[in-house]
Amino acid sequence: MSIKQFLNTGLQFCEHLHMHHGIEEMHIFPVLARKMPAFRKELELLTQHKQIHAGLEQFQAYLQGCASGDRELRMTELKVLMDSFGTVLWTHLSDEVEQLGAENMRKYWTPAEMKIMPM
Question: How many other CB atoms are found less than 10 A from the CB of residue 45?
Fold first, then answer.
C-alpha cells in the first residue's frame, strides 16, 4: 500500500465513522431510547460519540495535512492521535454490543416490537 493509499484509507475511516454515528444519533438511538436508558442523550453512549469525535477530528486534520503535503507523515504522531480516542472507541464498541445483545434487548422489547424497528 502506498502512502497516498494509506492516508486515503485513514480519511475514509474518518468519513465512515462520522456517517455511522450520524445515522445512529438521528435514526437509531432515538428509537432505542424510548425504552433503553443507555441510548438517551445525556447518558454514556452519546457521550462516548462526542469523546471519539474530539480525537477523530484531530486525527482527520492530521491526515488531511499529510495528504495535502502541508505536513510530513510521522507514524509516532499518528499513533498519539489514534491513542487519544482509541480507548473510548473500544469501550464504546463493547458497550454497544452489550446493549444490543439479544439478552439485553429482550429486557426492553418484545419480538414483535423488534420486528418493526426501522433498522
Answer: 20
If we measure between CA atoms, which residue out of 49, 20, 46 comes closest to residue 119? 20
Q: What is the residue type of 68?
A: S
Residue the block writes with cell 465513522 = 17
pLDDT digits (tens, 9 = 90+) for 26-78: 999 999 999 999 888 767 888 899 999 999 999 999 999 999 999 999 999 99
SS3 labels along the chain: CCHHHHHHHHHHHHHHHHHHHHHHHHHHHHHHHCCCHHHCCCCHHHHHHHHHHHHHHHHHHHHHHHHHCCCCCCHHHHHHHHHHHHHHHHHHHHHHHHHHCHHHHHHHCCHHHHHCCCC
How large is the greatest C-alpha to C-alpha distance in the chain, in angstroms?
A: 55
d(CA 44, CA 80): 24
